[in-house]
Design a protein that fits this description.
- The chain is of the alpha/beta class.
- The protein contains 18 helices and 18 strands.
- It has three domains: 2-40, no CATH class; 63-191, NAD(P)-binding Rossmann-like Domain (Rossmann fold); 193-390 and 422-458, Dihydrodipicolinate Reductase, domain 2 (2-Layer Sandwich), CATH 3.30.360.10.
- The chain has an eight-stranded mixed sheet with strand order 15-14-13-9-12-11-10-18. A six-stranded parallel sheet has the order 5-4-3-6-7-8, with helices on both faces. A two-stranded antiparallel sheet has the order 1-2.
């Protein structure tokens, strides 16, 4: 009996001590395990530092942009920005000078002057120090996102960061503190929040068509087999090899957090994650890196619960031949939306009538045990287009205009257009630094859960207690 008590006491002591020193459970911040729940240390806000919820900055007639990272994503961003009014592209930066120089052709085609070119491992610093840059657009490999962003913010620049914006909890706090300290915008470039289906269903949710949303699903399921060899210096596979967890969660969780009003009336409370073995991943790293192990499981599954009692089901899989899916789904007390593998809606008849009795023709054809008929769904998609989709650009609704430019079906262009629009009019951005931190934190939080036997992990409150200060998500427009 004595021996059992001693062993139990030792186990309890181990569980209550921060695990940062153990290589198996290493994390970027200290944490403890209390009653089986992992709780991470959360830094207090420094005296004099203020929240940037719904931050408004001085309007600017022209947004002067510098791009850092001109590979797969950055290249397309430069081209898209040449179609946006009120933009000057003043600087192009990449580790490899030839890639930065190659982007000059987009400026030339648009009749814009050439931009300055910076290169090398720290070329971004000189760009950020320039007096003629308002916005630094960051599309580097993930490992450099925070270093570039923080340096830019410390030099008074607004930043827009590709996904995930940060890789660790410590980095997430660095973004939050830099934005609050310097009173600048720090947004995440989550294009899936501007997908036409996601925008429309968000508007439906805000109009009450789904009732109270109690569950959502999201994912990044994308077989990257054709692309691994094309990432510069093999940076992406190297990251997968070294890190387990849902390291690319933002495409799935971003639109769901918007529909659930996360940090605008609700917040992510805790998550539980688990991983399969690495089979295809191990084969891949052996072939391309001559290494015998891959920490990233072929499939990652995560369940998240919010403070208000909603749940989110997340998946990550880039290693197996599954059809592409972001698994986007909203489950409400009065309706349902689903995009993958079949796009459709289900509503209760009385719910549709209570919102708008003329919402669709032939309303009696709805059957709430199945998807609404295709023609009804199409009418609903038109009826409930989000105000962002209807925003006029040269007399054309932004949704239609974006299709002419392209970029993942137009959602990339809408994302960039809204960023510039809000900066030019001094409006709060659609996505803020707390979104960037919350969505990006999933990578390390899920790894901590997995490496601690799938224990629940509390999600840090990056707003530091202000998650219910705002009443719902709002997209701002100039009067």
């Amino acid at each position: 009996m004595y021996r059992v008590r001693v062993i139990s006491s030792l186990l309890l002591l181990f569980m209550l001590v921060g695990c940062k020193g153990d290589p198996l459970f290493e994390a970027s911040v200290d944490y403890k395990i209390v009653d089986g729940v992992v709780i991470l240390d959360e830094p207090e806000r420094v005296a004099g530092q203020q929240s940037v919820l719904e931050l408004r900055c001085a309007p600017m007639d022209t947004v002067r942009v510098g791009f850092v990272g001109l590979g797969m994503r950055g290249l397309g961003a430069v081209e898209r920005f040449t179609y946006i009014e009120g933009v000057k592209i003043n600087a192009l930066c990449d580790k490899y000078q030839e890639r930065a120089e190659a982007c000059q052709r987009y400026l030339e085609d648009a009749g814009m002057p050439k931009a300055r070119v910076y290169s090398g491992d720290e070329g971004y610093k000189e760009l950020c120090e320039s007096e003629d840059i308002d916005l630094v657009y960051i599309a580097t490999p993930w490992q450099l996102h925070v270093a570039v962003a923080v340096y830019a913010m410390e030099h008074g620049k607004h930043v827009a960061i590709e996904v995930p914006s940060a890789n660790t909890i410590e980095e997430c706090w660095q973004l939050v503190d830099a934005a609050e300290r310097n009173r600048v915008h720090c947004t995440i470039l989550e294009n899936c929040c501007y997908d036409h289906f996601e925008l429309t269903t968000l508007n439906m949710a805000q109009q009450g068509l789904f009732g109270e949303i109690i569950h959502a699903e999201g994912a990044y399921i994308h077989n990257l087999e054709p692309y691994w060899r094309h990432y510069a210096d093999n940076w992406r596979l190297e990251y997968n090899q070294a890190h387990n967890g849902d390291i690319y969660a933002t495409h799935g969780i971003g639109p769901n957090c918007q529909a659930l009003n996360i940090h605008r009336g609700d917040r992510l409370d805790y998550l539980v994650a688990m991983s399969t073995r690495s089979i295809n991943g191990t084969k891949l790293v052996k072939e391309l890196m001559d290494m015998d192990t891959c920490r990233q499981g072929d499939q990652i599954n995560t369940l998240i619960r919010t403070v208000n009692g909603a749940t989110i089901d997340m998946q990550h899989n880039v290693m197996t031949p599954r059809p592409y899916s972001r698994m986007y789904q909203l489950v409400g007390t009065e309706g349902f939306a689903n995009k993958y593998p079949t796009a459709g809606f289900t509503f209760k008849l009385e719910q549709v009538r209570s919102v708008d009795s003329d919402a669709m023709p032939d309303i009696e054809a709805l059957d709430h045990h199945n998807f609404a008929p295709r023609e009804v769904a199409a009418d609903m998609m038109m009826k409930y287009r989000h105000p962002v989709q209807l925003q006029l650009v040269e007399g054309v609704p932004l949704q239609e205009y974006s299709l002419q430019i392209g970029g993942h079906g137009g959602m990339d262009f809408i994302m960039d257009y809204r960023l510039v629009y809000c900066l030019r009019h001094g409006l709060p951005l659609d996505m803020d630094v707390y979104d960037a931190a919350e969505w990006s934190s999933m990578g390390e939080l899920t790894r901590i859960s997995i490496e601690n036997g799938s224990k629940p992990v509390k999600v840090p409150d990056f707003t530091r207690g202000e998650w219910n200060k705002l009443d719902g998500l709002k997209h701002y427009f100039a009067e």
